[in-house]
Each structure stands twice: as structure tokens, then as C-alpha cells.
Amino acid sequence: MLFERERELEMLDGLFAETATGRGRIVLVSGAVANGKTELLRTFVDRNNSGEAIFLSATATAADREIPFGVLRQLLECMAVSAEGIEKLISPEDELETVRRATAALLEVSGTAPLVVIVDDVHHTDEPSMDCLLRLTNRSRSTRTMLMLAESAYDWSMHPSYRIELVRQTHFRRIRLAPLSVTGVSEMVTQHLGREAARSLACEVHEATGGNQLLVRALIEDHGDAVETFERDSRVAGESFRQAVLTCLQRSGPDALAVARALAVLDTAASSDRVAKLIGRDPDVVTRLLHALHALGLLDGDCFRNPLGRAAVYDDLPGTELARLHTGAAQLLRQGAGDAIEVAEHLVAAKSVRADWAVGELRRAAEEALAVDDDAAAIKYVEFALSVCTEARQRAQLRMLLIRAEWRKDPGAAARHLTALFQEQRDGHLDADQTAALVRYGMWHGRTEEAAEALDQLVRLRPTVNEPLGSLLSSTRDWLSHAYPQFLPADIDGAPVPQADSAAAPPAQQDQAAAVLSAVLSQGDGDGRCTRVAEQILQGTPLTDNSLEAITSAIQTLVYGERLPLAARWCDMLLAEAEARGVTWWHAVFSACRAEIAIRNGELVDAERHAARALDLIGPDGWGVAIGVPLGALLYTATAMGDFESARKYLKEPVPSAMFQTRYGLAYQRARGRYYLATDRLQAALADFRYCGELMTAWDLDAPALVPWRSDSAEVHLRLGDYERAQQLAQEQMSLSGSPKSRTHGASLRVLAATTGHRGRLRLLKESVEVLQVSGDRLTLTQALYDLSRVHQVLGEFGKARMISRRAGRLAKECRVQRMQEQSAPSHEQPLMLVPDEGDTWKQPGTPARQAADMLTLSERKVAALASLGYTNREISGKLHITVSTVEQHLTKIFRKLKVKRRTDLPVELEFHAASTA
């Protein structure tokens, strides 16, 4: 027996001693089910049955309640009364006489020796036997009779009048058994598992059981699976514990079991009122039953104390009862304006629902789940709704929601719904917004014919157009014009390009974003209006599924509008958000955008990393026709870094034929052309560049910022020796490039320089380098510096040639370009190999220049940038419109701040970093 129960045993021993002296006693041991009442009684008998006392014991059960004198028969059998004698004593026809004779017989025994009458679970005693026990209490005060009764607290099956009759007796005592304390639990664990286990497990076991002895013992028996059993977050109960929980509930009665089952189903949404409504019981009764379950050690408030207890009750529910309770719980929560996700969880758990409102609740819950980025839950709700929905239009709308939810994780897998959706669209089950979304899904996966058919139906609605549909057609037109111009219907409505200072309402942001991207690609952005609108959109648009297209269009507007530092900052922020929220689709899209920005900045390692990540996240199937973006970026970077083996591997990747009818195919085709150019397959390269030009011209997207096909073609013609055609193409590219400060203009200057004599080439290359430093294109800047070094060498200016060559080599290392080949003019000379000097290491891109930029003033940075390119003090004076003396003073300060002694030690990319961080 536990030391914690010694106090109660000593009390019983004292009362027994008083009984032996002729002072009768009545003891009622009260406690929750399985809290040690029976063990206490047995221990008391074992300690005191060696003397002359006579012990009679009986255990009442719920089944005995309907058998007259069932408990009395058990007591008489303990007196060694024969069956015939018992039948003579008990007369069911005359209960009153039976009670009188049985009481007399018991009191007669107490005259010869102390008599202890024990009835366990007395609350289940049949009424005639209870009458006999009450008669005995009235006659036992001055006899050697001790009546010991044990009852379960919170059990109201016994009529209150019987309990009152006991309580009013002067020789009555009540012993209330409380649950075990942590100390008591520790003692039990020590007895079975040892002191070391008790130190580590006692508190957890007590918290899991509330001190209920049966539950504690069950957990100890399950110690073979100790890690799972005692882990609070475990969802798997040991078999002993599970059976102990169910035993406690079954012994507590059917009403307590019903309440426990309702609690298991409602879980965290449980309350006494909801439980009462769910099982159809009186709220006051339910409140008392909740107190009983709390005393049992199963509950903490209105919820299960431990997930193991809930799991035991929940798993024991029959299937039909489980479905009934879950359906009822869903209805209760819905009527009480409960959370839609909780309602949906109950509906799904019910596995079969017929309520008309269920589909609507499941759809609402799926939308809410997507709003908090719980894609798996949203998919679960929609799939279940589809399994029970029979109405055609509702099914079509649910399928549209399902493809959206699945697209966030795997656009390739989501494509399986397209066939059914296109058919539902033909049947008229999708509205205009859903049709426009379906067109986008279809185009992405190359289902161009079906998408064009759906788009045609959308356009045919124009005679009855309302304002929302007009806006939808406008945004669809702009989206097609920059992404899929091949499929742009001739009769679709257009819309003017928005002004930067116009107040854009949130619903129009997608329209604005599509319009400005289309405009910057077809007209350029000479006045900066498009990029200003794009930045406004990014500042005022939270990232959601519906806003993703607008946000990516805005970023691309910044990219093609030559605002690369700003585009990079926004893209990095959005990448971080997409990753934090766990939306794979968003993460992949922004990774591809970031790869394109890195390529334009000449950050080849970053470009390769982002492009590979984009492709890994959703795979080639998920990218559909847009595979050209990440795959083209990988092909371009591998070629630029001289890794032709990897480039050939990327070229072998299959791509959909429909890709070449979209804007996404241009990036891939240009990258393939650059590979052909780098590997001396000049005619193949020229064919790719020309085809890009033909498509862009036909689509009215002839924007050098998108694909500079003219300067690319000019490089091929230079290698072929056609200087006149190369010069013509380079000049055309420069005239279309817009700002003379753009990276496209700087790259075109470099190509144009190769078509002129040495002095003209020197002037153009210096101008090209200045522009490229400001625009941030590190790779093309490296090429221009290499070309500039060669010109100085030809002109006999060997000091300048060496200085600039070292700058080019250092920048090439940062770009991870392992071989720089002069492609601006045909030459039989060996290409310059960029090998690190002994002791030199690959540097983190841009670190020295960024440090220098922070240390110098703006004027000093300009002087340092020009000096690093070999400009004399007088030339710097003329370009910056300052005196030669001022130039000398600036250089003195620059050398001191940067701790260098020569111009050759100055960072060549100073101006680039100054511009990119401004």
C-alpha cells in the first residue's frame, strides 16, 4: 500500500478498534473511479482479518441493480449459509420481512464477534439490499458492527435519500480519497521501475493522469514504449493506458462515456453548452459529468488533460457514432459562427455528409486555409467537397479552387485538372474571372488551342460587356501582349497605359501591372513613368495568389526599365517572404526573376544558384512553357563561365515546342545563341538571334532591354568579318536603347568600337566602360575592359594596358569567368587566360569596392573611377569640369583613404557600386 494512503488506513484501523468495544461505526469511502477505493478496502481487510472479527464483503455492479437482494445474497454467502438457507431467508414476495430477518441475522453474528460488512461500489446496490443496509445502520450504533461502504464520487445512480439516511447517523464517518499527489505517483513509479525512473518520470506521469491510480499503473505497464507513452505530444497511446481510460469511463456510466466522446470529437472547441447540445443532455447534468471526468484525472478544464486520453476515447468510437458526432459538431460550430476551418475539419472527419450547406462551408474553409498558406488543408477540404458535391457549376468552381491550391506546391501536378476544367468552361459553368484564370493556366502548360478557344468565348461576351468585364479583357490583353503575343486576339479590347501620378485602386493593380510591362517592352520607358507605376504597385500590393501576377509584372518592368538595383531589392524581399510562408510556387517564380536580374548584373554565380533553385522547386513539368526562363539562365551562365559541358547538358533538356511561341522562349533562344557563338558555331548563333528579332518585331516587343538581338547578331558578323553589317546593327541597337546610360547602350558601344580604327575604338570603349560601370553589368564591363586593354597595348600604351588588364582579370574572378575571349574582332591570338596570382583567392563579389565606396565622397569616387581606367589628370579634369589641381587633391585623399600607392591598385568597379547603392 502506498505511504500516501497510510493516513486513511490508520483512520479505518481506529474505527475498527472502536467497533470491537461495542461502538458501531458506518464508514463511506468516496472517490473518483479507479482512485484506489477497492485497494484501500482490501488492504484494510488484509491487516485486520487475523483476529476473531468476521468480514462479509460484496461488490455491487450496474447489472446487480435490477436483481432484488443481489448484494445481500453476496453477504450471506460469506457467512457460509447454504443455498437452501439463503432461499429460506430471502423472500422476494415479502421484501419487508426479508429485510427484517436478514438484519436480525447479521446483528446476531455481531453478538459473537466483531462484524465488518463491506460493500464496494455501493451506488450500484439494488434497492431491497440497500433497505437492508440502511436498517442495519439504524441498529448498529451500540453493537460490534462496522459497515464499510465505497462509492464513486459524482455518481448519482443511488437515490439521494439513501445517502442522506447514512449521513444523518451520528456514528457515520466519510473518508474522501483524493487523487495521488506527485509524491504518491513517484512512490508508485519507484515500486515498479526504480528510483531513477521516478525522478525523471513522476511529474510527467502525474500531469498525464491527474493522479488517478489506475491510469498511473497503466502508464507504468506501458513503460516498454516509454518514449512514445510519456511524450506529451505523442498521438499513440500504449495499449494498457488506452484500456485504462476506457475502463474508467465505462465504470463511470453511459452518460459520462457520452460526454467524453463528445469532448473527444469537439476537442479544443469543447464547452459544456456545446457538449450538452451535441449529445442532447441537460446542461446542468453535463456540468456535473464534466466535474466527474475532471476528478477522474482525464480532463483539464473542458479538454482532455493529455492527447493520449483523447486518442483512446476517439479511436474507440464506432464509425456511425463518429460520423454522427462530427456532423453534429460541424452544425453546432456553424450555427455559432464558428471558425470555418474547424467546421470543415469536422465535415471531413465525418467522411460522409449530405447537408446542402456543407459544400459552401468546405469551400470557405479552403479559401481561409489558402489565406494562411495551409495548402494541404485547402486541398483536403476541396477534394472532400468534390466527393460529395453533385451540382455541376459548384463542381467546376471547386475544381478551379483545387487547381489554384495545388499550383502553389506543384504546377505540374495541378495540370491534371485542365482537361476537366476546359470542358466545364465549354459547358458554361465558369464565370468570366474563372475563364481568364483558366486561360492563364492553360497557356502556361502549352494548352494553347483550348486556351485560345476559352479566350474567344470570353471576347464574344463583349457586346454585353459591363465595366468589370471590360477591365478583365483589358488586363488579359496586356498580359497576352507581353507573355503570349502569338495568341493575342485582334478584336480584344485595349486600355491606355496608366500615368504614374494616377491614383490606382487595389482592384486595378493587376491591370496596371500588365499595362506598364506591356508598355515598357513595346515603347520603352524614356520618361520613367512605367517604372514609377511599377514601384507604386510593389509598395501597395501584399503578396497573395491573386496579386502574384501583378507583382512579378512590376518587378519585370523595373528590370526592363533598367532599374536593376531596385528590382533586386524588391525581389530579395519577396523571395524571403515566399520562403518564410512556404509557398513553393512563389519561391520558384521569384528565384527565376532573381536569376535574370543577377545575369544582367554579371553576377553569374548568384544567377546560377537562383536559376537552379527555381528549377529544383517545381521541376521542368511545373514550369511548362516558362521553362525557358530558368533553363535559359543556367545555359547562359554556364556558357559565360566557360563551363561548356554543363551548357551541353542543359541543351539536352527537353522543352515544349509551344515555348518558342512565347516571351519565355526568347531568353532560352538567346542563351542558346550565346552558347553557339562561344563554341564557334556562328551560323547557328546567327539563326537564333535573327529568329528572336523576327519574333520580337512581329510581336511589337522589339525592346533591347528584353533581348539585345541586334548587338548579339553584330558580334556574330564581326566574327564572320562583316564589319559593315555589324556596325549597322550596333548603331540600330543604340538608337533603340533609350537612355545613353543603359546597360544595352553600353554593350552596343563595345560592339560598335570593334568596327572602327584604333583611336575611334579607344574613345568608344572608354565611353562603354563608363556607361557599364554605372549600369552595373559586371560581365559586359569585364569584356569592355579587356577590349580596352588590348587597344592600349596596340597603341603602345603598355602601362595603361597592364593596369586595365589587371582590373579586367580581377573583375572576371569576381564574376567567376575562368576564360575571357576576345570576340569583338576576328583574331588568331590566343585568348587571355585569367588565372589567379599566387596567393590570390577568389573574393566575395564586390566586397573591396563596396568598402571603398563607403570611404570616399561622391566626387572622390568619380575621380577614382576614371583614374582606374587610365585617364590622365588633365582628361579627368575635362570630363568632370574641375581643375587639374582639384583632381590631384582628390587623388591624394583617395590614395590615403584606400591605403594604396598607385592607380593600378584602385578598384575598377568603384563607380558601379556607387551607382548601385545610391
TrEMBL record:
Record-linked Pfam families: AAA_16 (PF13191), GerE (PF00196)
InterPro entries recorded: AAA_16, P-loop_NTPase, Sig_transdc_resp-reg_C-effctor, TPR-like_helical_dom_sf, Tscrpt_reg_LuxR_C, WH-like_DNA-bd_sf
Domain HTH luxR-type intervals: 849-914
Biological source species: Streptomyces lomondensis
Name of the protein this chain belongs to: HTH luxR-type domain-containing protein
Sections of the chain in a coiled coil: none
Taxonomic superkingdom: Bacteria
PROSITE patterns in alphabetical order: HTH_LUXR_2
UniProt keyword terms in alphabetical order: ATP-binding, Nucleotide-binding
